[in-house]
Amino acid sequence: MVKCQVIMDAMEKLAPRRLAEDWDNPGLLVGSPSQEINKILVCLDVRDEIIARAADEGFDMIVSHHPLIFKSFKKLRTDLPDGKKFSELLKHDIAVFAAHTNLDIAKGGVNDVLAEKIGLRDIKPFDITGEEQLIKLAVYVPKDYADSVRGAVFSAGAGHIGNYSECSFNVDGKGTFRPLSGTHPFIGTEDKLETVDEVRIETIFPKGLKERVVREMIKAHPYEEPAYDLYPLVNRGEVHSLGRIGVVDTPMTAEDFAADVKKGLNAEYLRLVKAGDRMIKKVALCSGSGAEFIERASFMGCDAYVTGDVRYHDAQRAAELGIHVIDAGHFSTEQPVVSVVADYLTEALKKVHGGKNVEVVADDSLSDFFKVI
User: Fold this and answer.
1) Cβ–Cβ under 8 Å, residues 246 and 121
2) Of 164, 174, 212, which is closest to residue 194 (Cα–Cα)?
3) pLDDT tens digit string along 39-91?
4) Residue 369 CA to its chain's centroid (Å)
């Protein structure tokens, strides 16, 4: 059993809320951060059948990709679909949390999972949504406490450079200070100049983690008044994007690639917009509804574009641009992330005191609203 806040914190590490689009509504949508959680159901949509399953099987929390609430309510009538859902959720004390565009954009999120499922490699950003500003932390620590302070800032998210983690630079030196009247120094005595063997620890982190990194550093530091510096950097931070671009191992026809996509996503159907005999090597993708980026994919030299919810005139434009489009459906391009999130939460909660017995289940009962007949 853990507090709902613990699950919220774990999801924040996977899909930070700051990555979400301005119009989006991720986060805790029903329930309280202080709620006790024993059982979590991870799903794509908070549909009636999901709520019924959660109530019947004793789930305390639903973690979904699509937010249950997008717009404000002026009334909540329980004879209408939205009101009925909220009535059932509140009746059974089920919390609801959503990670939407932040999970689309996040590293290891929806689009990275989609790229892996359809066999792309050399993955790069597609539609840039932002770039993290980097901050350097320099903190001065007594030698015997250097490991604990480093560990604290690394656990808070500092120290990542590319595919390397726990990166830091350490310099030995002498720290001097004179505790003044009214202080309670960890080392030294009041009104006496002290000299201490210290380590200057330098590491970097994204600006969005500043409060967390500094807070954890101070908690781990033995001094009453830790000495530390923060420097804004002009180094390029991590680039965030909707969608991804990658390549297939060997060039293939549109029909063969479409077949691979269908198999990789275990999709019941897909639609192919074939733009001539162009072979496919470079591919762009955007999970869910991404038809608006067809032109961008074409201008970036992609041979094919994979997304969902493609309209007739979107298909016409793709054909005119000479880029193949595979509409694999909104559901099929996003459903694969459900099991990934469930696995992530299972492992994350094992590391939390009291969280080992929390059951996390990936829903596999939902299917696409559309059926081909």
Assistant:
1) yes
2) 174
3) 999 999 999 999 999 999 999 999 999 999 988 888 889 999 999 999 999 99
4) 26
For 20, residues 6+ apart whose C-beta sits below 8 A from its C-beta are: 26, 100, 101, 102, 105
Q: Which two tokens stand for residue 20?
A: 């979400």
For residue 310, the one-letter residue type is V
Q: Where in 70-168 does DSSP place strands (E)?
A: 95-98, 121-142
Provide the β-strand partners of residue 359. 39
What is the pTM assigned to this prediction? 0.84
Instruction: Please choose, from the candidates 129, 148, 127, the residue with its C-alpha nearest in 3D space to the C-alpha of residue 139.
Output: 148
Q: Say yes or no to pLDDT of 365 above 90.
A: yes
Range with the poorest average pLDDT among 64-68, 178-182, 194-198: 178-182
Structure tokens, 342 = 């469930």
CA atoms within a 13 Å half-sphere pointing along the CA-CB vector of 212: 17
H or E element that contains 48: helix 48-57
The predicted model gives 233-245 an average pLDDT of 92
Pairing between β-strand 227-252 and β-strand 280-289 as defined by DSSP bridges: antiparallel
**SS3 state of residue 50:** helix
Helix (H, G, I), strand (E, B) or coil at 212: helix
- Cα separation of 92 and 101, whole Å? 28
